[in-house]
Every structure is written in C-alpha cells, then in structure tokens.
Amino acid sequence: MYEMVLKLAVFACVTSVLRAGYDLPARPKNLTCVAQQDGTSTLRTITCEWEAVGRQTTYVQTTYTAIVKERLSGETINVSTHDNNVVVPVKTYPHFMPLEIWVVAHNLLGNVESEHLINDANCFVKTNPPLAVQAFSDTNFSTTLLVSWTTPIAKECMELKYRIRFCPNGSQTWSDVDRNDTVKPSNPFRLQNLQPDTVYVIQISSKNINDCGFWSNWSLNKTARTPEAQPSSKPDLWKAAESDINGMPLIQIICKDPEFANGKIKAFNLKEKKGGSWEEEHFLVNANQRGKHYLKRISLADKKFAKVCVTAVNSMGKSPEACLAIPSKPVDHLPIKEMNIWPHNGQLFLEWKHNNTSVSEYVIEWVYDGGIDWQREKKNTTRTIIKGPLKPFVRYSVSVYPLYSGCIGNPASKDTFLEQGAPSEGPSINKSNPGYDRVHLVWNEIPLNLRRGFITHYTIFYKKEKDIHAVKVPPNTTSYTLKPLLGNTKYDVWIQASTISGSANSSHHSFTTLKYAPGMVEGIVVGVSLGFLFLVLMTISLCLYKKDVIKENLWPQIPNPGESTIGTWSLDYPVKTETPKENSLFGICVLDDACVCDVKHGCEEDKASLSLKKDKYLSEEHSSGIGGSSCMSSPRQSVSDSDEGADMADTTASTVQYSSVVASSGYKGQTPSSQPQHSIFSRSESTQPLLDSEESQDMLVQEGSRHFQLSFTHGTENQGTAERDDFKQMQLDQQDFCPIDEDAEWAPADSQSADGEPGSVSSYMPQLNGYRPQ
C-alpha cells in the first residue's frame, strides 16, 4: 500500500514538472482535403493537408490523426502521422454522400482537434482534365472555331461544368469564355469573335457543376487556324532613305502585312501619283517571305514630294488603302524636342515632347546594321516602349517621325544600345607619317557591329625602349599627331578604344622618326652655300681691290729685250757715235718732254745729290710705262745716300734700265760736219732682271757713295756690248750732275784728247722728234 502511494506521488511530480515546461499541442489550421482522380475514372484516396502550430521535441512529440467519417453510416477511417499531411485510402468513394473530415493533434499533455469539414463527397473531388480535346474550323465562318472533348468522369458519378480559354499562337495573353456559357456547354462548343486566318491555342478545365470542389488542371494545348477572310486593316506603309550611284536621293518603299491580314498576303498593289494621274504597279510576294516587303525605289531628284498608296491582296480580297506622302525636304512644322531614350530591364523606353495638335500619328523608327524596323503610335502618345526584337551590344539609331495626315514631318533622332559591352576589337592603325620630332597617326574606326557600345575616348600608347607614354583623345578623332619625339628613334605605338564597359587594344605598330627634319638638310645646304658664296664674294672683292698687287705677284711685267724698239727711236741720226777719249769730259742729262739740262763741271756733291733726288721725283711723276717718253723714269736708284740707299736696294734688284745715247759726232776718226751736232740720250724702262755680270757691276758702283753709273743698251746686241765696255771705264769722280735752269746752255772748257786732238763738244739739246712708240 505504501508503495502504491509512493508511485502516485512520483507520477504527480513528473506531471507537474512537464506541465510547467510544456503545453497542450496547438490546434491544426487550414485543413484541406481533396479526392484526386487518378489515371482511371475511379477515386481511391483522399489527401488532407493542414498547418501545424507549436513546437515539437524528441521528448514530447505531437501525433496527428486524420479521421474521415461517412455521416450516414458512421463508418470512420483513421490515419496517424507526425507530418502535416496524410493520405487516407478509400475502398469505394461515396458519391453523393455527406462526409465529415477532421484532424486530432495528440501529445503527453492531451489532445486538440482541428475544424471539421462537412460536405458532399463530390465537393472534395478534383477530376482529371477533359480528355480528347479537339478544335477545327468552319469554312463558312472565318471568325469561329469548334471545340469538342470528352468528360473525365462518368456523368452518373458527377456532373461537371467547364471553362475554356484561348489565345493566338505565341501570345501569353489568354482570353476566357464567359462562365455562363460553359455551365452546360454544348459539345462541340463554338468559339466566336476570333480573327480570321489566325492560329489559336485552346485549353479546357472541369469542375463539379454545383460550383463546389476544385477545378481540374488545364488540358493539353490544342491549336487550330481560323479560315481566311478579306483583309480588314491597311498595310503598314513606310520608307527608307537611300541614294543612287550618282548620289541622288532615292526612297525605298517598304510595307508590312496588315495587322489584320485575315489571310496570307499574295501581292501588293502600289499606286504612284505622277502629274495629275496615278500609275499602278503590282508586286507579287514570295511565298516564303514574311514581315517586311521592299516594293519600289522612287527618285526625288526632280520632285518636291512623292505620294504612293498601297493595298494588300489575299485570296479573299483587298485590304483598305494606305497612303504616304514623302517630301524631298521635311515638312516645316514644329519640331520634336526633348527626346530621351534609355534601356531598362531589357527594353528601350522612349519619351519625347511635341506641342503640335495637327499630328495624326507618330512613327517610331529604329535602324541597325543591315536592317530597319518601325512601329506606330497614336497622336496623343509621348512615351512608349520599342516593341520589336532588340539585341544587346547592337547600336540602334532611333527616330521619332510626326505624321500630318500621311505626310512625313521633321524627325528627332538619337543613337542607343540596349546593353553596352567592351569592343570586340580595337581600331586599326591605317598609316603613320613620321617626321623628325613627331608622327601623324591615322586609324580606322571600329565597325559598328563590333563596337558593342559608345566609344568614350581613345588612348594612344607609344613606347621607346622601356618608357611608355599615353595620350587621351576624343572619341570623334581618327587622326592625331604625337609630339615631341626624338629624332632617328624607333617607337612602338598602339591605340586603345574604351566604352563604359571595357576597352580593346589595336595591334602594335612600329615606326622610326626621321634623322633630319624636313628642310633641315636644305637649310644646312643653303647655309653652307650662302657662306661659301659670301666667302667667294669677299675673295672677289678683295681681288678687285688688290688687283694691282695680285697682278704684280702673279704676272710680273718682263719685257723681251729682243723685241725692244729702242734701237729704232733715232733712225734719223747716225747709228754709231764717236768714242770719247779717256780724258775728255762730258755731261749727261736726262731729257724730259719739257726740260733740257746742260752738263756743267765743278758742281759740288751736295748739288749733285739734290739734283738726282729731284730727277727721281720727276721720273715717278711723269713715268708712262715701258717705252714711254719720260725723263728719269727708271725705278732703279742710281745715287745712293744715307737716307735712301737701303730703301732703294730692293728696287734695283728687280729692275734694270735700258738706255741709248746717240751722238751727233759719230764714231772716232770720222770727219765732223760743219753743222753743230747734238748727242741724244734716250731711255726706256723695263722690269727685266739684270744679268749676273751686270748685277755684280751694279753692286760695285752702289758701294761708292756719291757715284752714279749708267748702263746704256743699244737696240742690237753688238752695239750694246761695245758701249757697255766703254761705260765701265768711265769714272764719275771727276763729273757730277748739277741742276740748271730749263733753257740754260752750258759750254764745257776745251779739252784735249789723249792723242792731242781737240775733243768734240758734247751738249744735250731738247729732243726734236720725241720718242717713237714701241
């Protein structure tokens, strides 16, 4: 007894502890039960699901029990689980019988029941989709399709209602048939208000006719095409600007099939207005061609505008007419302004502003590499989405055209990308023109289909050995001059094109700068030439200024004694002169054109010296060159003194005097004539160097101061030799020159010759006949 009490106490303590930490299980919520039809027409199971509330642990678990009770018979079916769903098997489904279904949650602390579902057994049924769905057209009705099917469950078990939906093939927008029309539908059922010559996709679902229970899944797609009909809308007419081989503007007429073609378009009829009449042409359509049709090119060279009208033709008839007026110049209306375009979620959004109420519609055109497309918008539209298929990394030129009753207005245009990426390749360097300290680079733009985005800038990299430099240039530049560079240096250059998403480099290109800049060689040559020319001119000027000195040094005047004509000067007088005796005295005077000097004895040495100096100056003043008629013109100094002897020595070494004395008395021994005779002294100048024998004798004479020795030379060699010997014996110690007045006469004292004969009187008289020209 004591042990029993102890056990009860322990049990009470454990129960109190459990209740202190845990509660009863939570009530299951949102209980749903479905009798799903399997592949056959029978129903074998009921599937129930609920929402479990509260926590479960390994020490305190919650068990769920689903109970299905047939209310009329009271029969129940129980299935337990720890999950939140359960499948209750049913041997025979009780159609048209009420059922009650609920769930009990149980743990150590107690039980909790869910809500009870009480309904007709068929209201828990979800049948299979309708079977053998068929759709076919009626040739008499181009806007209808007939649909037939079979019920998924026998009518004896459950009566059904249906729902039907359809859409054009490829569309994601479904259209539902009115539910009231499908409560007890006829079979087959006619779908109405469809588009002719359109393929439709059809689906059917079924449910308990009492509008309880669950809709079945949709049946498999069934497609059918409606019959053709006459086109009910206009063709979509547009144009594309082109040019001929001569650059003249051309318009390519393009059109799309009508939106409601109601059949396959087989041809287009085009009318062009020329003058006051219409010219019609028929264009057949290729059976495989769909979408855009290029009809005709029209020249606008001699037109203000072109107007065309087009109709589409199918097997059932013609469409309404579409017309388009294309001016050679855009119509001068208010332009479209503030056009913006941007990509978003894989689409291109377009927005514009246009304050013109006369617009009938807008055409949105986008041109890409190798193609063109367009769409039409209503006149009150200012924002739209481009509906055509667009690709990323493709450049589109988008334009908005206003239309004024079919006449095209002035558009607004912008370029855009749906998505930008790095260029597929870099620009190609076309050529480089290197100079001395610069290079001019020219490159080709990246083709549009390879740019994959807007070029933000170009970067030119150039490298010399290990030094790399970079220059950024604008994106609209295709040439650039790099400077300053080093001359005669090899550089490696490449160009990088960049977008907002990346960059791409061109291939490397090498060049070598020039060794000399253009014009540098010419400048050097011109400078050297000018310097040389200046030197030549200075040399020529110096030569002209010093021509006499140069002439004396390069071409000295050396007359030929053999060709001298001094021997023929006094042909009117006897050739031979009387040889004077040893002790005879005579005087020598040099005759000038205006002076005659007589010889006088007894002059003092200072007077003789003064006379010689005077004669020297007179000879320099009146000299006229070789063979001239001058007195005392010899450059040889005959009298040496302390003042001028040293200076004159240089001159005597290079020149010699040639003289001839013609005496009137003839040779010694001849009988003198009764007429007074005169001795004539003639003299010529020459730069002929002296012979060695003459020069030695000359030097001997110069050593004696105050003495003068004359050398006389005749025209012939024999005469010159004889007279030279006579003059060598003359002693000038006893004779001196003495200056006298110009017309004075001097008579020497009588003297006797060595043999006792009286000496002939010698005197110098003025020259009678002058000098003969040489």
UniProtKB/TrEMBL annotation:
It is found in: Membrane. Coiled coil: none annotated. Residues 665-690, 708-721, 750-766 have a biased composition (Polar residues). Residues 1-20 form the signal peptide. InterPro entries: FN3_dom, FN3_sf, Ig-like_fold, Type1_Cytokine_Rcpt_Type2. It comes from the Eukaryota. Residues 621-651, 665-774 are annotated as: Disordered. PROSITE patterns: FN3. Keywords: Glycoprotein, Membrane, Receptor, Repeat, Signal, Transmembrane, Transmembrane helix. Residues 129-229, 423-516 form the Fibronectin type-III domain. It is a single-pass type I membrane protein. The chain crosses the membrane at residues 524-545. This is Interleukin-6 receptor subunit beta isoform X2. It comes from Austrofundulus limnaeus (Annual killifish). The lineage of its organism: Eukaryota, Metazoa, Chordata, Craniata, Vertebrata.
